[in-house]
Amino acid sequence: MMAYKSLLSLAAVQAVSAHFGLVFPEWRADTLIEENEDRFSQWTYPCAGVDYKEGNVTDWPLEGGALKLDLHHPWTYVFVNLGLGENSTNFNISLTPQVLNATNEGILCIDELTLPSDIEVSDGDVGSIQVITVGDAGSALYNCADIRFKKNAEGPKNCSSEVDYFAVKDQNGAENDTESSSGNSSDSDSQQEGGNDDNAAGMLGVNRVALTSVVGLAAAFVMGFGL
């Protein structure tokens, strides 16, 4: 009986470690802590089962703002969508038209996700950010944050990344089809990591069919289909 309970506890720890945290903008609720496990699930579209304004509303710049995530996978595909208005369930504005590939576990911080040129917002307008991640398990995980567009809004005090991330630029499978950014490593380090099959960049280099399929799923995620 004790062994059974130990296995259950281990499974629970592994499940949590495979999820992700939304640090900035502040998520609607902490969907990782044990006290919320009966209420919320990151497997649930579109916002892990967390209602609008469950938590704080974060001020975000008019042109677009920062994103800070705590990633728990060896590699992760990241999609970020925006829904305008109160209690929006239509996250039809992509803030990552080039799919992001993050390598390693840890903090991923992007200084600015720019709004599309055809999207105009005014000071005081509200909306919600939806973050979707896909890791080595191949399943989509969801978290949301509610925002208020403000002219003089500021980002997180510390926006340094512990992980490298790559923005996919070409779906045709060219060898140099990614644009990279790293937290504490050089460009040459990033390129060397690209040959490692254990990370996202390596997979992109050796599996072009998978790359095309995953990038194509971005549209499906916007429409609300999980994997």
From TrEMBL:
Membrane spanning stretches: none
Question: Region Disordered: which residues?
Answer: 173-201
Report the principal subcellular site. Answer: membrane
> Where is the protein found, in the record's own terms?
Cell membrane
- Give all residue intervals belonging to the Copper acquisition factor BIM1-like domain: 17-160
Q: Which residues form a coiled coil?
A: none
Q: Where is the composition biased (Low complexity)?
A: 179-198
Query: Which UniProt keyword terms apply here?
Result: Cell membrane, Glycoprotein, GPI-anchor, Lipoprotein, Membrane, Signal
Mention any one GO cellular component term assigned to this protein in its UniProt record. Answer: plasma membrane
Statement: the UniProt record of this protein carries the keyword Zinc-finger: no
The membrane topology of this protein is: Lipid-anchor; GPI-anchor
Q: According to the UniProt entry, where is the signal peptide?
A: 1-18
Q: Which CDD domains does the UniProt record give? A: LPMO_auxiliary-like (cd21176)
Q: Know the name of this protein? A: Copper acquisition factor BIM1-like domain-containing protein
